# Entry
Amino acid sequence: MVDSNALLSASEGSETLNSEDDLEVERKSITLWRSPLKTLYYFGWQMFDEMKKAFQFAKLHKITIGVTLTIVIAIAIFLNVPGPHQKHVGWLNKEIVWSVWWIGLGILSTVGLGTGLHTFILYLGPHIAKVTMAAWECQSVEFPEPPYPDTVICPPKGTSLMHINMWVIMSKVRWESFMWGIGTAIGELPPYFMARAARLTGSELDDSSFTDLQKVEDPSTLKCTDRFKLWLQNFVQSAGFFGILLCASVPNPLFDLAGITCGYMLIPFLTFFPAVLLGKSIFKVHLQMICVVILFTADNLKMCEENIAKIPLIGSALHGPFTEYMEQQRITLHASSANHIKHSPTVISVIFNVFVALMLLFFSHLNNSRLSSTKVPDSQPTQATCHEEEI
# Structure
């Protein structure tokens, strides 16, 4: 005779498992596209929970927060009091804002385990290209400030010309590129700390591909990409600092896996981060700068403008908009800062703006992954009672 208690416990265990599976499925279905109201509802509760934690932290660290607020208020007063120092304050404020902007873009580029916003293609690359084209057209990099860096125009007539080469152009954009590289290095820290915490606590990694590759006995059965991932893991683990430096110094979309490997293998932070910082902010950034500067030199642009019409099928359709765009850029560069010319958008600029919008929409899925793991406080209605129709 079967024990009724055993049957009851088995039934309860099965119901619990099914409930957890249903909850997991429901969490994955909560996205900004499918259920915007429900997503924003849970996002609001998550922010409320974070604010409660911040308030509790403030209660436990009253002295630290008081001293910090005092310093911030003193700095704010110093920055706003009139005096001869305001000239230097204005310059410092401009440089800090400019640097923070590029560091933030760098973080956005690498955060999210390879799904970040590709800000080199969207921001830094076009900025370097714009400065390169302007330098060759104006035969100078001493652009008037303002409007530079928001707008690049040639110096006034009579300004001494410069001998333009790749190194002169790179020196003009080196600081913002360096700041962007620092941001990309900072963006690699979440995978490292996530994997390190998982190893120290004995929990499983969110990225199961790492542990799956570690269990493979015969690498020849893997796909080419998986074999490269496995090689990257083993290389970083065995080569240490110089292996991490090499991987960080070249464009590598799979570098997040190297960060996970370093964290999971408990490679020290003082070995991991300096190598990433040096590789991304020095070597990789200069490699990218060189490629963009060479690509947008005056000779290469002229050759491109001459040969674009020779492309089969679409060449004749592309030649007109490209020539129009280049001529518009030349006219804009030679406009004075006081009489800056505004043009109607060209076909190329419209296409680029659409591309940026699509990239931003794609980037918003990171918010969905954050919200899908949100837990509603116990005092709120359960998910079963707060269903709504998906929009």
Q: What stands out?
A: The chain has a mean pLDDT of 74.
